[in-house]
């Protein structure tokens, strides 16, 4: 018979290839067309083997299924709202940070202005701090005033200028009025 060798080789090749495949489970035998169970054979013949279940048991199974479905649905919505909430909070934080930068910059809300003058501002603040350590309050107030000319609404500069005015008022009895004016303007804002 012609073609007998071909079908034998094809079947041998299929068996050999099957041995190379990874088994899905170490403990259960893999199900394929080569090893059908009796239940599968009965199903193929048109009968489905099943246990008889009462109406009460069916209602219980249905309730459990609905309960599990509702629980999964709630978890999905909870995750959805949690992700949306996190996104909203991140957006709020982003806009607050931008508004803080605009407050520091004051009326000059150009970002290029901020980037160009931040080094000079930091130098004036640190210079004022050095004068404060040396107890030269007049020079410290001068440096802080210059820093506030660059960024008029910066809270760090305002706080340090008030401190310098306060110490100058206590030691040299100067700039007491400026200290009071600055404090009153902070309280109003």
Provide a compact summary of the structure.
The protein has 189 residues and is mostly helical.
Count of β-strands = 0
Helix and strand content put the structural class at: mainly alpha
Low-confidence parts lasting 5 or more residues at pLDDT below 50?
A: none
Overall radius of gyration = 41 Å
Helix tally equals 7
What number of domains?
A: 2
- Supply the CATH architecture of the largest domain: Alpha Horseshoe
Quick check: average pLDDT?
Answer: 78
* Alpha carbon gap, first and last residue: 104 Å
Kindly identify the CATH topology of the largest domain: Serine Threonine Protein Phosphatase 5, Tetratricopeptide repeat
Indicate the proportion of strand residues: under 5%
Transmembrane segments: 77-95
Protein name: Tetratricopeptide repeat protein
TPR repeats: 121-154
Keywords: Membrane, TPR repeat, Transmembrane, Transmembrane helix
């Amino acid at each position: 018979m012609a073609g007998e060798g071909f079908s034998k080789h094809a079947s041998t090749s299929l068996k050999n290839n099957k041995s190379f495949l990874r088994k899905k489970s170490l403990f259960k035998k893999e199900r394929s067309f080569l090893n059908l169970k009796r239940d599968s054979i009965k199903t193929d013949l048109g009968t489905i083997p099943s246990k008889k279940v009462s109406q009460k048991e069916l209602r219980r199974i249905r309730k459990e299924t609905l309960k599990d479905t509702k629980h999964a649905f709630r978890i999905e919505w909870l995750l959805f709202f949690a992700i949306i909430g996190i996104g909203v909070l991140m957006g709020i934080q982003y806009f607050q940070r931008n508004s803080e930068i605009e407050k520091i910059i004051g009326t000059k809300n150009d970002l290029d202005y901020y980037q160009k003058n931040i080094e000079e501002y930091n130098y004036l603040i640190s210079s004022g701090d050095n004068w404060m350590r040396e107890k030269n309050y007049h020079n410290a107030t001068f440096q802080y005033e210059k820093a506030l000319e660059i960024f008029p609404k910066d809270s760090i500069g305002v706080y340090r200028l008030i401190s310098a005015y306060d110490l100058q008022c206590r030691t040299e009895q100067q700039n007491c009025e400026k200290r009071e004016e600055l404090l009153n303007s902070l309280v109003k804002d």
